[in-house]
Amino acid sequence: MKLPPSFYVGHPVSYIARSLLGKRLVTSGVNGTLQAGWIVETEAYSHRERGCHAFGNKKTPRNEAMFLPGGHAYVYLCYGIHWMFNVVTGPEGKGDAVLIRALQPVPEAGIPSPRVTSGPGKLTKALHINRSHNGLWLGGNTIWLEEGIKVSKAQAVQTTRIGIDYAGPDALLPWRFYVKDNPWVSRK
DNA sequence: TAGAGGATTGAT
DNA sequence: TCAATCCTCTAC
Question: A84, A78 in Cβ contact below 8 A?
Answer without folding.
Answer: yes
